[in-house]
Design a protein that fits this description.
two-stranded parallel ribbon; single chain; alpha/beta; seven-stranded parallel sheet; 328 residues
C-alpha cells in the first residue's frame, strides 16, 4: 500500500497551481486515488475542484482557516501570490501578510513547505548566469513582496526544524499561460524587435515546474530535505530571436521592422516620464530586452537531473501549440 502524500495547496486555481493538481492526479492514476490527499484553499466556487482526494476549503489570504491543515503529516505548497495589482490595493496584504499568517498557522503535523517565488528578487537589470547565492535587490513592489514572503517562510521552516523548498523561475510556459508567450506573440505581431535579439532567458514548462514541486513534496514528506532555494528552469536558455523566430514560423507572422533599444539609459528615460504607465512599460521591456538566465546546477544536482537538461526549444514548440485555440 502506498503511503498517502498529503498536501495543503494554496493557489490551486492559478496557472502553476492548476498544473500541480494535474500532476497529482497523474500520481493518483498510477498509484490509486488514496495515494494523494489534497486540501486546497479556494476563494470562489469550491465545487470547481470537486474530485476524488481533493477537499476544497473556502477562504483567502491573509486569513488562514484552521480546517485547511491535516492532523496527519503533510506538506504545505504555497502558490497563492498576487501577481497583478488590478484593484490598486498593493501586494502587501496577500503576499506578505498572507505568508506571515501561514507561517504562524503551520501545525506540528506540517513536515515542510514548498513556495513559488521568482528571480525578480535579484532586481531588474541584466542577469547572466546568477546562482541562488547572488545578492538580492528587488526593485518593484511585487518583487519586494515576493522576497518578504519567501524570507518569512524560510525562517519559519528553520525555526520549526522542518524542510522548505523555495523555487525561483523566470519565464513559465505552457498550458494556461496568459501573459508570457501571449505577450511575446503580441510583440511579434506588431513586428517589434527589442534589444539585440541575442538576450536569453531561463524558461520552464509549467508541467515540468509542477513535477519539481511534487518531487520536493515527496522528499519533504519523508523528512529528507532541509531549507534551500532553487532556480526553476532548464540549463540552456532561450534567446529572444530564437523565440520570436519560432513564433513567426509557426504562426505565419511577418518579420520585424521596428527595433526598440534595450539599454539602461533608455529604461531610465522611460522611468523619468510622468505616470505609472511609463514605469510599468520600462519594467516589462526590461524583462524581454535584457538577458535573464540563471545557473540551475543546484536544481540539476539536488532534484531534477533529467528535467534540467530538457530541450527548451521543444518546450517552446509545445507551448505554441497551446496558443493555437486562442488564436483561431
Amino acid at each position: 500500500m502506498v503511503t498517502p502524500l498529503r498536501i495543503v495547496l494554496l493557489g490551486a486555481t492559478g496557472f502553476v497551481g492548476s498544473a500541480i493538481l494535474r500532476r497529482l492526479r497523474q500520481r493518483q492514476e498510477r498509484w490509486g486515488t488514496s495515494s494523494v490527499e489534497i486540501r486546497a484553499l479556494v476563494r470562489h466556487d469550491p465545487q470547481r475542484l470537486a474530485a476524488p482526494g481533493i477537499t476544497a476549503v473556502h477562504g483567502e489570504l491573509p486569513t488562514i482557516p484552521t480546517s485547511l491543515f491535516f492532523e496527519d503529516p503533510h506538506v504545505v505548497v504555497h502558490f497563492a501570490m498576487k501577481q497583478i495589482d488590478a484593484d490598486g490595493s498593493g501586494f502587501h496584504a496577500v503576499n506578505v501578510q498572507g505568508a506571515e499568517r501561514l507561517a504562524e498557522s503551520l501545525p506540528p503535523s506540517c513536515r515542510g513547505v514548498v513556495h513559488g517565488s521568482s528571480v525578480s528578487v535579484y532586481g531588474q537589470g541584466a542577469q547572466e548566469g546568477l546562482s541562488e547565492d547572488a545578492p538580492l535587490g528587488p526593485e518593484t513592489a511585487l518583487a519586494d513582496s515576493r522576497l518578504r514572503a519567501e524570507t518569512c517562510l524560510r525562517l519559519a521552516a528553520l525555526q520549526r526544524g522542518i524542510g522548505a523548498r523555495i523555487f525561483r523561475p523566470r519565464f513559465i510556459l505552457g498550458q494556461g499561460d496568459r501573459f508570457t508567450l501571449p505577450g511575446l506573440v503580441a510583440l511579434t505581431r506588431r513586428r517589434i524587435r527589442i534589444g539585440s535579439g541575442q538576450q536569453a532567458f531561463t524558461v520552464i514548462d509549467v508541467d515540468d515546474y509542477a513535477e519539481l514541486v511534487v518531487r520536493a513534496c515527496e522528499r519533504l514528506a519523508s523528512g529528507k530535505d532541509g531549507v534551500s532555494v532553487l532556480h526553476a528552469g532548464y540549463e540552456r536558455p532561450l534567446g529572444f530571436d530564437e523565440i520570436t523566430g519560432m513564433l513567426r514560423q509557426r504562426l505565419a507572422l511577418p518579420p520585424p521592422r521596428l527595433r526598440i533599444p534595450a539599454n539602461p539609459s533608455f529604461f531610465r528615460v522611460l522611468r523619468w516620464l510622468p505616470g505609472s504607465m511609463a514605469e510599468g512599460l520600462a519594467t516589462r521591456l526590461e524583462l524581454v530586452g535584457l538577458p535573464h538566465y540563471f545557473d540551475v546546477s543546484r536544481l540539476k544536482n539536488e532534484l531534477a537531473p533529467d528535467l534540467a537538461t530538457r530541450d527548451p526549444a521543444a518546450v517552446l514548440s509545445r507551448a505554441i501549440d497551446h496558443l493555437r485555440p486562442q488564436r483561431d
